[in-house]
Amino acid sequence: MDTPIIGLSIHLDLIYMLHFLLKGGCMIVDSTRKGKRFPDSMSKTIPIWTCVLNRAIMNYRTRFGLYGGAEKNESNDSAECGNTINEDSYNWDCSLHLPLWVSNTERVLIEERLDGWTKDLEVSGADIASIALSLKKPLRPLWISQKTVIWLNEVPDCDSWDFTPIILVSTSSPSSNLQQRTTSEFSWRYIAGAGDDEESWARGLSPSLFWKHAYDLINSGPDTCNKTVADIVEKDRVYRAQRGENAPQISIKPSKSSSNSGHLPAQEQLGLEPLRMNIDEKIYDKNSISWLGETNLAVGTTQLAKDASGVDCVLSCDLETNSFSFKESGAHLNLSIVSSKFDRSSLLRNLPSAVNFAKNNLRKGKKLLVCCNSGEDISICVCLAILMSLFDDKGNFDEGRLLNETRINKLELRRRLVFICQFAVNARPSRGNVKQVFSYLCGGNVAITS
Length: 450
Hints:
The chain is an alpha/beta fold. It has helices spanning about 10-20, 40-65, 70-75, 75-80, 105-110, 115-125, 130-135, 205-210, 215-240, 300-305, 345-360, 380-390, 400-405, 410-425, 430-440, and strands at about 25-30, 140-145, 165-170, 290, 295-300, 315, 330-335, 370. The strands form two sheets. A five-stranded mixed β-sheet has the order 4-5-8-6-7. β4 and β5 (about 295-300) form a beta hairpin. It comes from Solanum pennellii.
């Protein structure tokens, strides 16, 4: 059981979920193959990371006199600053909570590594302070499946719980003999493992659009849900197009049986009637280019890069060739890089050119912007490769001296990625692309697997 390259993702996810955690907890939904009640992520990965986070939070509070008991009484200065957290009513639980079906042997092996994982998290640069000062009760997972029976009148009020629940809901079928449902029963076809592959099923609906129209989607019911999604997506597309933003027409490619069940034919575009716009419905941030500390390196979307100020050169990682007006030649490089979901080595093949372009410009003191279509994945991973290749561990440009003198490890990779995410708050680096960066830094000697 090795520490995953993107182990920091649980920290990023918790930052996003902190708003919900402060309101009493959150819910995570996932599934796995037939015949298995819970995926490994819910059985072991999430319980491990909740325990690790609880330990890191306790260590932080103890270190700064914010963790109950004698130390709390000795630290009156913290109380005067308003930082002391009242924890007298319960103890901060740092024990490992695993479901009953995880064997005692596995439990022992996991518990032996908890302290090491906690130290790795603490030195990764993750913002433990924000979570420690905001979270009032320790995290604890609860498991819900299709076989779970809950008597609502016997569930205590969540305010009386001495922990913050992370409710793990598995939608997996408990029986391996359950036959595949046909499209005549539902308008969708379940694909195992597609939870993080939203472009294959989300029909152009982004997370922000979903939450803005969640009740409309729920109330529309299964018969008109697809039409409601299409209306929402097209309305948002027209809104962005009217403001000169990148807003391509969304194409849908449903299952082969769709034409027989009254749904959209294959590759049919969303042809919708004009919809009235509410000009205040969505506010776009025109200055969402993120500068990474004092490194002269920035990251953002290709659309915003065209009008970005204070930029001397641009490294575009978009499939479409974009033109930028710079007086000096060689100030723009376009690399057509696709996600690891479509090409496992596209990023790896282009990283040497990307790092060399960055080196030639950064050594002249120029300010470099790295951009891609979303500004959340490929451009983030290119920045990660540049920081690891050309900067020391203090963020100073050294043209690669540290890289030549030291051996790259996953911990340092996580530290640099956490550093990037402190500035690029919308970063969502994919596992496959981070693995390609790690392989590049190791000289291409690390196999890239799914």
